[in-house]
Amino acid sequence: MVKVYGIKNCDSVKKALSFFKAHHIEHELHDFKTKSVSCDEVSRWLGHVEIKTLFNSRSTTYRELQLKELNLDEKNKIQWLCKENMLIKRPVIEFEKAVIVGFDEDYYRGVFL
Questions:
Q1: DSSP string for 17-54
Q2: In terms of CATH, what superfamily is 2-112?
Q3: Nearest to 17 by CA among 97, 90, 99
Q4: Which of the residues are catalytic?
Q5: Where are the domains of the chain?
Q6: 46-91, pLDDT tens digit by residue?
Q7: Other CB atoms within 10 Å distance of the CB of residue 96
């Protein structure tokens, strides 16, 4: 089963969920707004993807928290991801032993179809 992490009103998450539904791929949504993601999960994802891929510096949350002014290093970015899940780029897809961040239909077709 594919596990999708994100929030249900995010456009990229909606696209991913629509893709899985359209192709009859069993999936489950883990909504950040109803259940946070642990530091263990964030660390596990970082074993598969780089921090610059997972940390969403273009998000509203990033701007609201004025994190650009802090000039965060990698360690601080990880700490922020753990305490503020809305900084995680969405969706995060767990499939078998892979972690995929973001939505790219062509890439999804290559992986899931």
A1: HHHHHHTT--EEEEETTTSPPPHHHHHHHHTTS-HHHH
A2: Glutaredoxin (3.40.30.10)
A3: 90
A4: 10
A5: 2-112
A6: 999 999 999 999 999 999 999 999 999 999 999 999 999 999 999 9
A7: 7
